[in-house]
Every structure is written in structure tokens, then in C-alpha cells.
Specification:
Distance between the termini: 40 Å
Shape: elongated
Largest sheet: 7 strands, mixed
Number of helices: 0
Number of strands: 11
Radius of gyration: 14 Å
Order of helices and strands: EEEEEEEEEEE
Helix content: under 10%
């Protein structure tokens, strides 16, 4: 079984910073793309940032220049550094990873359980 475990969510004041982490564990052959999504109350889940195995990144326009996604392939971990946080960044943040569990198996999407980020004074 594969598990994604997120950590780092918290309550922070506007303008503050947080660093989210997501570690994948279990039966893993390789991990392709990894990403962070978020879902605010009453809204659809949206892509925040993604990163390929080779390190190419993609960001939502609303977080570009404030958030940075990175990964450590040796640790099967992806990070999201969030700076200059705004109240509109408040949401549950979910980690996503495309994982192949065996050499000839297909890629499958896995999700973490979510971590709450609240930006408020």
C-alpha cells in the first residue's frame, strides 16, 4: 500500500510563511509528477503547484512568486514553501503524486489526507 502523509499546516497571520511537507511511503517503484492542490469551503479543489521528477515546475497564477514547490526524490517527499500568505490562501491543502508501484504497472494517482492552512489576524 502507498500512503501520502502531509504536515505543516497551521494558523498564520497575513504576510506570514509556512512550509508544507508530504512524504510518500509504501510499495513504490517510482514517482512521476507530484503536486499540491487546495480546497476552500464551498469551492472546487484547485491546482496550486506541480513538479516533475526532473524538477520542472508549474504554478497557479494566484500563487506565483509567493509559493515555491520542491522535491527530494531520494526521500519521496515534496515541499511547498508559502510566503506572503493572504487570507484567500486559507484552505485544506492536499498532496498528490503519480506513482508506479512495480516496474510494469501503470501510473496511479494517490492523495494525502489534507492539512489545514488558515491565514487570519
Amino acid at each position: 500500500q502507498v500512503q501520502l502523509v502531509e504536515s505543516g499546516g497551521d494558523l498564520v497571520q497575513p504576510g506570514g510563511s509556512l512550509r508544507l511537507s508530504c512524504a510518500a511511503s509504501g510499495s513504490i517503484y517510482t514517482i512521476n509528477n507530484m503536486g499540491w492542490y487546495r480546497q476552500a469551503p464551498g469551492k472546487q479543489r484547485e491546482l496550486v503547484a506541480s513538479i516533475t521528477r526532473g524538477g520542472s515546475t508549474n504554478y497557479a497564477a494566484s500563487v506565483k512568486d509567493r509559493f515555491t514547490i520542491s522535491r527530494d526524490n531520494a526521500k519521496n517527499t515534496v515541499y511547498l514553501q508559502m510566503n506572503s500568505l493572504k487570507p484567500e490562501d486559507t484552505a485544506v491543502y492536499y498532496c498528490n503524486a503519480e506513482i508506479r508501484i512495480k516496474v510494469l504497472s501503470t501510473l496511479k494517482d494517490y492523495w494525502g489526507q489534507g492539512t489545514q492552512v488558515t491565514v487570519s489576524s
